[in-house]
Amino acid sequence: MLRFVKNAKKKPEFREIGGLTVHEIEHAEKTLIKIVQAKFFPSEEDSFPNMNVITDEEVIKKRVKTRITERSDNPEFIYPITLPGVFLHNGSLNTITNKIVMLEHKFFSEY
Q1: Would you say which domain of life the source belongs to (predicted)?
Q2: What is the pTM of this model?
Q3: Which of 87, 34, 44 is nearest to 65 (CA)?
């Protein structure tokens, strides 16, 4: 979708074609996370009253500052992304959260 919008603004000879690049996929994932966070966590004070929430330099808005911040590790591990969890009305995991978690499990299980 992001490539389509980008290509729509370009002359035909400058449009990108072919498979998506790693950068495009990563950017799409971060944009999706930002949209989900804006929908489910409109206010940090109300959504995370007892947590230290930070905004990173990238597209992703809300990460939780945990006790392991002094550890020398991957910043994505030290500052996890906040995503919506279980819906109270039916007990199921948010669809987007579920897909992101499953993709990450699949990615890391291959190592």
Answers
A1: Eukaryota
A2: 0.63
A3: 44
